């Protein structure tokens, strides 16, 4: 059967007209998808979601204080430079100095060249030329006299909530005119204001005349 060109063109146009709604729906769907992708930002990769350990602010000559349950100062942390990190709320401190207070007892000062305070404000790590110092105190009506005390090590860890300062590094302890050296560190109890030395301990003990605290 011979089909005339005019009839063939007419048939093709009729087929296109029948498919036109489907073609338009497809174009509209593609256009809608493209607009949605353009309006929504790309989902960041897992690596991009990781919060970098970078400082969000720095304070010169910063100070941090905490009060006990009756409103008195429990401890105070000072530093020439205080660097706060946003990702874990931890703090690096240049030249940290911390004072620990106990009622009716001399305040104890710990310090070092550098320090790190965790985000929960429970542990202060003191590194390089770390020291614990307690001044001498004369006897009072409720407390016996105490000698000047100085403990030195390359590292001290302050357990703030427990009022404990400890180290597993070699430590030297001066109390009055006595001096002791411990190979495996020691633990200072701020409530009792006493220190226990660990490992091999060597030194000398000097007794002072009564009534002559240093």
Please tell me about this protein's structure.
The chain is α+β, with helices and mostly antiparallel strands. The chain has 2 domains: 5-40; 49-204, lipopolysaccharide transport protein A fold (Sandwich), CATH 2.60.450. Helix content is 18%, strand content 43%. The protein has 2 helices and 14 strands. A 6-stranded antiparallel β-barrel has the order 2-3-6-7-5-4. The longest helix has 35 residues, at 5-39. The model has no long low-confidence stretch (mean pLDDT 84).
Count of extended strands = 14
The arrangement of helices and strands along the chain is HHEEEEEEEEEEEEEE
- Rounded to the nearest angstrom, the radius of gyration is 36 Å
Instruction: Report the average pLDDT across residues.
Output: 84
Structural class: alpha+beta
Helix content: 10-25%
CATH superfamily of the largest domain: Lipopolysaccharide (LPS) transport protein A like domain
**If strands are numbered along the chain, what order do they take across the biggest sheet?**
2-3-6-7-5-4
In total, the number of domains comes to 2
| Overall geometry | rod-shaped
Oligomeric state of shown chains: single chain
Largest sheet: 6 strands, antiparallel, barrel
Number of helices: 2
Low-confidence stretches: none
Tell me the strand percentage band. Answer: 35-45%
